[in-house]
Model the fold of this input.
Amino acid sequence: MFESLSDRLGKIFDGLRGRGALSADDVDAALREIRHALIKADVSLEVVRAFVEQIKNSAIGVKVTRSVTPGQQVIKIVHDELVAVLGKTTIGIDLNAKAPVTLLMVGLQGSGKTTTAAKIAKRLKDRQKKKVLLASLDTRRPAAMEQLRVLGEQVGVDTLAIIRSETSVEIARRAEREGRLNGYDVLILDTAGRTNIDEDLMAETVSIRNIANPHEILLVVDALTGQDAINVARSFDGRLDITGIVLTRVDGDGRGGAALSMRAATGKPIKLIGVGEKMDALEDFHPSRIADRILGMGDIVSLVEKAAEHVSAEDAQKMVKKLKKGTFDFEDLRAQLLQMKKMGGMGGLMAMMPGMGEIKKAMADANIDEKMLDRQVAIINSMTKKERVAPNLLNASRRKRIAAGAGVEVSEINKLAKQHRQMADMMKKVGKGGMGALGGKMGQMTVGMGGMPDLSKMDPAQFEQMARQVGIDPSQLKGLPGAAPTPKALPSDVGTMLKSSGGPALPGFGAAPRFLALPGLGKKK
Done:
């Protein structure tokens, strides 16, 4: 969602990074460009004015840190102000109340309230082991109650029995009684919406609030709403005193202004974001991580969390054993392709990696096909079990049969076989300890700092000094964020650029950095 804003700010900062000093005119010019970028991203004008003014005040008279250029200092100031606008801390759903804790979902029709209610129910059931009851109070929209019942069955959560003759207020009373008598931990009430804000909608919602006495009132807003989002947020907050905001369709192509505008205008925290249509596609809103993404710094923490969610400890251990033996077959390749797909595909992974923004843009310009992952999995599925564990069996006739079974050309089979050989060769080197020295030293660096540092925010000189302390030549680390600037890439240069990293081939576009191909990125706790 934030890509357009990220692109515009990236171009502004590209002009600042290389400068040894900035004049007052340079800062004013950058602020003008930042103002234009925010307005084009659908951030409301009043929020833009306050944001730019705060950046200007913070930049005046600021002491420039040693070994950091003034341009880098301005970028840090913008980052800090973005975090301040988005909310400095992550605030999840508050369940600290007497059971059943009531959550009231409000918002306009089409914003995704019903789906979001089911997503929250699944999240509370799976992560916090809560007993949840879902209740639809939408008596106006056809099949709204039936939709919530079906979603409840899908996520394994109870739903309130449907009685068509009841009003929304009567349903709220019955839901509260049902939740209290049957020992539910959480009661989620899904209210009706309208295509626009009107007095009938507000009066009905206020009546429900007075009856249900909810602990949380969550405003669900479509991230694609644009500048009108601020009016929606203010209207609901003025009548209901909402406790938080849930942004849906954050994975869409909206400009990102809604998040900045609503949080700044209402002062109410954005608590959750919907990042897809699947019922588990709901994430906590982390202001600092979103600011990192907007400024092209990546989001390594979210990447590791995704890996931990999708890569089981058992699978990771199996891969470690194979690595020690130096073996890597098509079954292993398929497992990695499926893991990559679950984590959002190449585009999703690139978006969260520091310094990978330019490569991601080049991939988009080169029309890299994300469906390549599906085709490659289909190819492996068309192989016999013996062929998967013994890739050397793939002669010409077998390749023709596999291509026919997967519905692709033989050339696709050849590409996949070549990619597998490259990855298998690398795994053999890892198994023999060929990368052990560098890997061990990098491990010393991270352990010594208490964990993986945020390389995108590090002073380059400090990074190089840290590397030398553990015996690593800083030239080996060029291209990593913080070590040296990431080169700009043209579409035609993507393959060459990635291959220069010395890594194995990845689906769809050739080679990639070594750490992308390693299995077991995370383990379930």
In short: Residues 415 and 500 are 19 Å apart (CA to CA). The beta strands are 101-106, 132-136, 158-159, 186-190, 216-222, 244-248, 270-274, 282-284, 505-506, 510-511. The longest strand covers residues 216-222. Residues 410-431 form the longest helix (22 residues).
